[in-house]
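Regression test case RT-17, inverse folding.

Input:
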């Protein structure tokens, strides 16, 4: 899908120009320091790892095949079992993908109250919980593992790494509940992302990129204080009062919402199944961005590999 150029926000902020008077061709002189940019590619998938018996094999081969083709800088995986996490880690090492073969991957388990799922279908004891994982091409210099409000079922987390690269990107993943705790978990994630995305005296804002399965559609009122007012549209009426854009929110097939990321029947915005997997970043940190979701093979894993689609996105940010 096409990229959106956010001139009205970025140029007004950087150069004091009126937001309503900035033509698409406007920009700083080529030798201006503010013209420096950095571009990052993001890949996310909820792989439903427990549905594959918790073991590596077809599902991890499919993951590694997609990663080889898409070649992202940051990777987010949800519902990944420990054995699958290790297989992906080893596959990326073997491919020479990370800058540091010993510092690029993080896993955070999300223990279940009664059944950890990952080995149950493989016939073993339920001892290995699935969780969330991030992989960074660039060696992280910091890791945050934040526990979200308990939903009575699973100990859910926000897992983030920061890397010393242009724009100070901090990459996160999370997997939000489907029950009544969803609102509290979304609020906790949003508060942390806003804090990191906000300038403070002596501590400039990071560029926070947050991927995950939010189990919430873009036009749900729970996300009204996530989306920036500029996203408001018939497909996402708001009232939106947040600071974030979602990397697929300008998809021409459903502006303000994006492409479906599930294969189920829930949804019906723009006549499509639901979008619940998203990649967010603060609007003021974006020069251009886009994203797409990709249909999942129905045969590569002896059947559908997941009921979620792969989402990959690209964002270009300013570098002071």
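Golden output:
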């Amino acid at each position: 899908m096409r990229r959106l150029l956010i001139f009205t926000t970025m140029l007004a902020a950087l150069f004091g120009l009126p937001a309503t008077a900035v033509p698409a061709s406007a920009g700083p002189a080529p030798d201006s320091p503010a013209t420096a940019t950095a571009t990052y590619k993001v890949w996310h998938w909820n792989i439903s790892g427990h549905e594959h018996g918790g073991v590596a094999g077809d599902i991890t081969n499919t993951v590694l095949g997609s990663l080889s083709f898409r070649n992202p800088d940051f990777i987010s995986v949800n519902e990944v079992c420990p054995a699958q996490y290790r297989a992906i880690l080893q596959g990326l090492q073997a491919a020479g993908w990370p800058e540091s073969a010993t510092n690029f991957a993080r896993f955070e388990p999300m223990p279940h109250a009664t059944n950890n799922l990952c080995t149950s279908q493989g016939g073993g004891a339920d001892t290995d919980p699935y969780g969330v994982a991030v992989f960074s091409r660039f060696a992280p210099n910091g890791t945050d593992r934040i526990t979200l409000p308990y939903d009575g079922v699973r100990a859910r987390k926000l897992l983030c790494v920061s890397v010393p690269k242009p724009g100070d990107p901090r990459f996160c993943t999370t997997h939000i509940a489907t029950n009544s705790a969803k609102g509290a978990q979304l609020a906790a994630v949003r508060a942390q992302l806003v804090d990191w995305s906000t300038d403070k005296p002596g501590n400039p804002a990071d560029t926070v990129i947050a991927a995950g399965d939010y189990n919430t559609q873009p036009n749900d009122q729970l996300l009204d204080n996530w989306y920036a007012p500029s996203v408001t549209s018939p497909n996402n009426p708001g009232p939106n009062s947040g600071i974030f854009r979602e990397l697929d929110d300008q998809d021409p097939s459903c502006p303000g919402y994006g492409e479906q990321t599930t294969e189920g029947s829930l949804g019906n915005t723009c006549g499509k199944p639901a979008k619940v997997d998203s990649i967010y970043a603060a609007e003021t940190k974006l020069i251009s961005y886009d994203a797409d979701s990709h249909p999942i093979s129905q045969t590569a894993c002896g059947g559908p590999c997941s009921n979620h689609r792969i989402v990959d996105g690209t964002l270009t940010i300013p570098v002071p």
